[in-house]
Amino acid sequence: MASTLKTIFISSIATIAAFGAVVYSSCNRDKCKSIVCANGGVCNDGSCTCPSGYEGTNCEKVSRDKFLGNWHVLEKGSITLAAQYPISIEPTTNLTDVVIKNFYNYFKTPIKATIIGGDSIVIPNQQYEGKVLFGIGHIYSNVTYGQYGAIEMRYEIIDTATQRVNDFGYNEAVDHSDPSQWNK
Fold it and tell me: Were 78 and a residue from 43, 45, 175, 182 both cysteine, which residue would form a disulfide, CB within 3.0 to 4.6 Å?
């Protein structure tokens, strides 16, 4: 009788241990098991970490796509009157780069820019047609134009002949200029 109770007791302990192991392992399941990250993204703790140039829940979107298209510019520089004109932002062969056509309503040469962090556009320091330019902008949503329908662009144009600076919110604290507004 004692050996039967001992066998039942050991069997009960083994059953409880097996049940506990199953419950424990089901609570600590792999959060990335059912996640598929596109375009070289990597799953970390149930979320995709996207490579540069991609975004979205599963890295399925190209970050620069929201910047592409035709935009309407409204701006007033620190030394120029208010102006309105069209520009276009177009892709290049590099996934994070774009060109801006008709920038400043002056440049015939497309201006090079780079998309960083998914929502920012950077115009690196470059010189064309007697002017030096650089700037940074941020794309956002607004009521009138919807999701990704506006860019607030801050930049400067420096005339190489006269050294006069036309500022569009880049050094706002110094010259009280306003950023350029680009709308879809």
Answer: 175
Phi, psi of 157 (to 5 degrees): -120, 125
Q: How confident is the model at residue 84 (pLDDT cuts 50, 70, 90)?
A: very high
State the sign of the Cα–Cα–Cα–Cα dihedral 68, 72, 78, 79. Answer: positive
Q: Which two tokens stand for residue 68?
A: 């592409």
CA 86 to chain centroid, in Å, comes to 23
Beta-carbon contacts of residue 144 (< 8 Å; ≥ 6 apart): 150, 183
Element (H, E) at 101: strand 97-101
- In the chain, the amino acid numbered 104 is Y
User: Are 42 and 81 contained in the same domain?
Assistant: no
Does one domain contain both 72 and 42? no
- Is 48 found in the same domain as 106? no
Q: Quick one: how far is CA 34 from the chain centroid?
A: 25
* pLDDT one-digit tens code per residue, 90-107: 999 999 999 999 999 999
pTM over 0.70: yes
Beta-bridge partner residues of 126: 133
Task: Domain of residue 30: give its range.
Answer: 2-61
